[in-house]
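lol ok so funny story. i was supposed to be doing the assay writeup but got distracted and ended up predicting the structure for this chain instead. priorities right. anyway since i did it might as well share w the group, maybe its usefull for someone
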Amino acid sequence: MIHLKTKNSARRKSKPAEPTRLLIIRHAEVERSYHKIFGGRIDMNLSPRGRAQARRLARFLRTRKIDAIYASPMKRVQQTLAPFLKNGAPPPTIMRDLCEVDFGDWTGLNWERVCEKFNLLTHEWLDHIERGVAPNGESGPELRARVEPCVRKIIKNHRGQTAGIFCHGGVARVILSMLLKMPLPKTNIFEIEYASVTQIALHPGHAEIELLNFTPWRDL
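and the output, tada:
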């Protein structure tokens, strides 16, 4: 007996399309003098430990299939990316709008000084950014307005593929806020550590966190 496949039966058995995946990668540890301050647009270098983190990160990323790389032009991101590019990784596309948040008059100050000078609460810093409290700094809506077109372009260009986005802690939070459809201040429930990898799979109608704040350098 010969069985003929109908269009409906073929459709039922068709393999679902691969989701688009984004690897959101924060830069490695920066120079010690910039720890626990609002660095923002200060173009700082990695610390020696940060360079070691970047090498471990590169080893981990080589185990993943990454079809495209996008990155902030800032030195700490470029130095984090450099070890990965040594072994045949896709050439990066630099996007200036993936730069870190502009903290305005908070730039270069530690949290305690910001709280003292501007009468704020440290744990509410994302709420303050969202509302544009930092004098001469970016607000949440302004930040999303420059980051979101970058992410939309990456998704459009790499449907069904995996793209790595090398960026900053603040930018990573904006991307998560956008993809998970949650307010920026609510992303404080996530830790985004130096040289960490967060993987999001974009399915029709929803986004899925497949990897969150993974730090391949943890045993350094």
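The radius of gyration is 20 Å. The CA atoms of residues 17 and 177 lie 25 Å apart.
back to the writeup now i swear
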